[in-house]
Amino acid sequence: MTKSLLHPSGSKRDRADVCIIGAGPSGAIAATRLAEEGLDVVVLEQGDWPDYSKARGAHADFEINSGADWAWNPNTRRLPADYPINGSDADIDVVLYNGVGGGTVIYAAQWHRNAPSDFCVRTLDGVADDWPLGYDDLRPYYERVERAFGISGLAGDPAFPAGDGPPLPPVPLGDIGRRVAAAHNTLGWHWWPGSNAIATRPYGPLKPCVQRGTCLWGCADGAKGSADRTHWPHAIELGVRLVTGARVRQIALNARGLAEGAVWIDREGQEHITRADVVILAANGIGTPRLLLLSATHGHPDGLANSSGLVGRRLMLHPFGVVTGVFSDDLHSTQGPWGQHIHCLQFYETDARRGFVRGAKWGLQPTGGPVNATRGWPWGENNLVWGPHFHRDVRARLGHSAMWGIVAEDLPEESNRVELDPTLTDSNGIPAPRIRYRVNENSTRLMDFHIARARESLEAAGAYKTMVAPQIRETGWHQLGTAKMGTDPATSVVDPWGRTHDVPNLYVFDGSTWPTSSGMNPTATIAAMSLRCTERLLAQRHEQKVPA
Amino acid sequence: MTFLDDAARAHLGALADLLIPEDGDMPSASGAGVAGPGVDAVLAARPDLVEPLRIALALAAEMDPPRALATLRTEHPAAFTALGEIAAGGYFLQADIQRRIGYRGRAALPIDTAPVDAELLGPVLARGAIWRADPRGAQ
Question: Are A345 and B130 in contact (CB < 8 Å)?
Fold first, then answer.
């Protein structure tokens, strides 16, 4: 028996209770939780299920052929579900995955809660905006999503308030982690065993990691906590109707200004409409503003839910830098959890003496095999090995090196934005997103500082040489901020529970809502926010305005 | 690859040898077959590298290999990167080359979940909390 938002008697109707757009982590969490309460949920996903038979991690040629399906950049991957992204006016390329599981299919699985200060940068540091909630509001949701995703790590990290830790023990420190941890103890710097969405023991649908280091290219070993494994099978068992190959082109609005449902196109080009009492956008920080802008009407000429003018603006992409260190000893670093062995938050908080505000998180990773030793990633384009010293330099790097990946907080700027491209379209003729994004002065100073400290870290650990890839272009994994959350409709798109100010039955549950970006890998907070917003929607469902 | 005739393979070998020269017991790129079975295997797996390779080979047909490589690097960086992928991929995918450098691929390694060394963690804990509280209190 199905209960609807306004029809708890459960009569079958011609509309769903909830239509969710996007089957990534935020959509998966919302769908599962709503279905647990008996709601009728339809999820529209333009991509397909990831086909792990195409993952290449166990193949001998993995290093040269990690698989076209797993390319990070949709402009390179070009699967039928991928829409092109015009990044010609951006300093960083957006990378994402369109399919069941969303970005978690290709994320590195580094898993971090935001720090308490991340929610109040205006109050603490005088920049940007505070979130209309705090760490304590999210803490119970963090704990629940960490259990759902099978997070491994260690409780007690002094960079966060005390509380429950993840359900699984951490991945091994590895030779590189032990070496760097000892160095940080000498320096008096923070480090902690890595926190990852990587199972270290059998856990629900997940198998223990076998350390191939292939997290970023589809984990065929079944160890990575991606939503296609951790949520979707259960959600479907609960009755969620997941429609793949469903490319949404518009949120339909009725005469009363309520969302009527989603108009979408199937693989054969046929158009459909899924009607629902409530529509939830879970299409990431690019797809969500794109769809809101595509849904402009006569009454909403600048896009749906855009009376503030902020839809698509304030895009934050987390500039990413890498520092590698080469050691004399064999540290067995050609593979391992990837992921991170350890993380460092020593310089995460603002120190005004540094000449910038906010900070960055570091994650220590292996460096891969011999082909990887020749690449600009992670070694830097100025440190290529070609020529007379090729063999010497490859041997020096292979298994004898470690890399710090640096995730830098970038502050919101309205000029960094997602727009509709005037000419570029997807395969259905729907306007593609165009990204305008410039790394600002604060981020540049921040990255320079952190690179210098990361070099010191690796040198203290015994590296005889360090190299820098200062800002790698194809690293826009984290798309945040393009439908800002707040209490004032004049300066925000959604309220603190993801409901758009302008359309009372239209919600945004993905990373678009973040007022500021933190310097953490965002999936933990995206997941916790989705769960929190979903439970608010459930609690308020009898007051929910619906179109019919 | 039909466009890879003998002349094209010779040009590729010359370029690749500048990237991966012979050194002691390690053969050069061409000596290891990068311009033969190596490039065929890489392009079969990575068809996206075909077009940038055409750019590299067109330059190599017009000028001597060092100049072609320098021009490629400065004027066609994406094609230069692709040439590197072909050279390194065609070279290191070979079992004999992997054996010589002691590389065994990405093996499945059981994960160790032994407790983290308390002595190593001790100094981190001893320094205490490093996070800043939210002065707004509960929201």
Answer: yes
Chain-chain contact of B136 with A130 (C-beta, under 8 angstroms)? yes
Domains of chain A and any CATH numbers: 16-52+67-543 (3.50.50.60)
Average pLDDT over all residues of chain A: 96
What's the pLDDT tens digit per position in A346-373?
A: 999 999 999 999 999 999 999 999 999 9
User: Given this model, what pLDDT does residue A156 score?
Assistant: 97
State the Rg of chain B over Cα: 24
Q: Give the pLDDT of residue A14.
A: 84
Tens digit of pLDDT for each residue in A6-26?
554 444 578 999 999 999 999
Nearest Cα neighbor of A229 from A138, A345, A109 is A109
Helix pair B118-126, A174-187: axis angle to 10 deg: 40
Q: How many CB pairs under 8 A join A and B?
A: 179
User: Which residue bears the tokens 């798109």?
Assistant: A493
Interface test with A, best of B34, B42, B97, B124 (most A CBs within 10 A): B124
Give the predicted TM-score (pTM) of the model: 0.96
Q: What is the pLDDT of residue A64?
A: 92
Residues of chain A contacting residue B127, judged by C-beta atoms under 8 Å apart:
158, 188, 190
Contact residues, chain B, for A375 at CB < 8 Å: 84
Chain B CB contacts of A158 below 8 Å: 124-125, 127-131
Contact assignment for A349 to B84 by CB distance below 8 Å? no
Amino acid A390: pLDDT: 98
Chain B residues near residue A173 by CB distance under 8 angstroms: 116-117, 120
Give the residues across from A203 on adjacent strands.
A206
Mean pLDDT, chain B cut into blocks of 10 residues (139 residues total): 87 97 97 97 94 95 96 96 97 95 92 95 98 86
Q: Quick one: pLDDT at residue A548?
A: 78
Give the A window 125-154 contacts with B, CB below 8 Å.
130, 132-137, 154
Residues 6 or more apart whose CB falls under 8 angstroms from that of A352 comprise: none
In degrees, rounded to 5, the angle at the alpha carbon of residue A135 between the alpha carbons of residues A133 and A138 is 80
Structure tokens at A87: 């990044």
Residue A67: per-residue pLDDT:
85
CB crowding A62-84: b at 16 or more within 10 Å, else e: bbbbbbbbbbbbbbebeeebbbb
The answer for A 314-333 residues in CB contact with B (under 8 A) is none
Nearest to B20 among A158, A172, A390 (CB): A390
Tally Cβ neighbours within 10 Å of residue A331.
24
| pLDDT at residue A2, rounded to an integer | 40
Query: Which residue in A has a C-alpha nearest to residue B109's C-alpha?
Result: A210
A46 touches A81 (CB < 8 A): yes
Token pair in block for residue A213: 């280091």
Nearest CA-CA partner of A450 in A254, A318, A337: A318
